[in-house]
Amino acid sequence: MTTFILGVITTLVILFMFGRIRLSSGKPAIERAINRKLSEGPYIVAVGGGTGLSTLLRGIKSFTRNITAVVAVTDEGGSSGRIRNEWGMLPPGDVRNCIAALAENDSELRKILDFRFDRGELKGHSLGNLLLLAVTEMSGDFSRAVERMNHLLSIRGRVLPVTTEGITLMGKTRDGLTVKGELDISAHGHELSEIWLEPVDAKPLPDVLGAVDDADVILLGPGSLFTSVIPNLLMSDFADKLRASNVPAIYICNLMTQPEETQGFSIVQHVDWVSAAVGKCPDFVIVNSGIIPEDIVERYAKEGANPLYIDDEQREAVRAMGCEVVEADIMSVWDSEKERRVLRHDSRKLASVIFKIIRRLDD
Asked: Under a CB-based contact definition with an 8 Å cutoff, are residues 43 and 66 in contact?
């Protein structure tokens, strides 16, 4: 990427910083009232990555602004992977998505940050990733850049990379094959017997650990099991902090298995892996009870993905681990830009279920 192009992106950052690009159009009095109410909400730490975490954040920000999103930094694909390889910066994609999700006007900001160049040297890069790259170059540190973007865009909460160290996902299959990197882990997830990070002594950010101390509830997932949720939990200091905490933890299970990564997995297997990474079982497990349309089930099945429903046997197995099972319709069907219907967690439905649990705990 040329110095000229990076200079253009830096100019955009400066325009953002000085407020020449406005993303909020609400009335000040209404905004103050909303912010006052949201500031009284519970303190939530949400752990994950990928589209699952950003979907969750869009829902819970309607209930509280006391949110810390802890984001995985092992992404290797697309624009994030190119920036990581060419600039030695941590992958910005998942962080960008979470910042956009917590913005006051998330739909408008998402359009801007998700804008993807389609030609020239910038082909394939999103504007949001390049903005984070520019702020990192200006700040000299990825975590400071993320913090500046948090303040710059006045988001409801805070987004933190779990670490600023360059980490790599490693795993071993049941056949003894060692696999390296997020892409290989995803391709062999259903065969894994072991997973870890290198370097093994990588440290989470102090603010990540501090967020757990302040939390009223910890949310794990939703998201790809081995490449979004578990990478955060593999940092031993973070796992130790979660294990020692008396704060209730809620694991949000995916709607479907993921081709290759969790192909053929049950809900029990998902909970087993999360429990092994933390060192204890989550207090609650939220699973979808909504009926997935048959046409979507059939199409996903051709790709190697199947619905994650819970039956009586699994229900008893999860309860035997010490987890309370919460079953609810938390899904929605979207029409994607590729003219096919896709299954996603419903932000509002999911947030409603989570806050029902929180209110019950407060009673």
From this structure: yes
Domains and CATH numbers, the chain: 3-13+47-362 (3.40.50.10680)
Tell me the C-alpha distance between 241 and 179, whole Å. 28
254 Cα distance to chain centroid: 12
Distance CA(57)–CA(130), nearest Å, equals: 22
- Beta-sheet pairing, 168-173 with 178-180: antiparallel
Peptide bond into 199 cis (omega under 30): yes
Give the pTM: 0.89
- Contact (Cβ atoms closer than 8 angstroms) between residue 267 and residue 285: yes
Average confidence (pLDDT) over 11-24: 51
Q: 92: which 2 tokens?
A: 């910005």
Lowest mean pLDDT among 154-158, 161-165, 312-316: 154-158
- Residues 133-145 have pLDDT tens digits of 888 888 888 999 9
d(CA 78, CA 163): 21
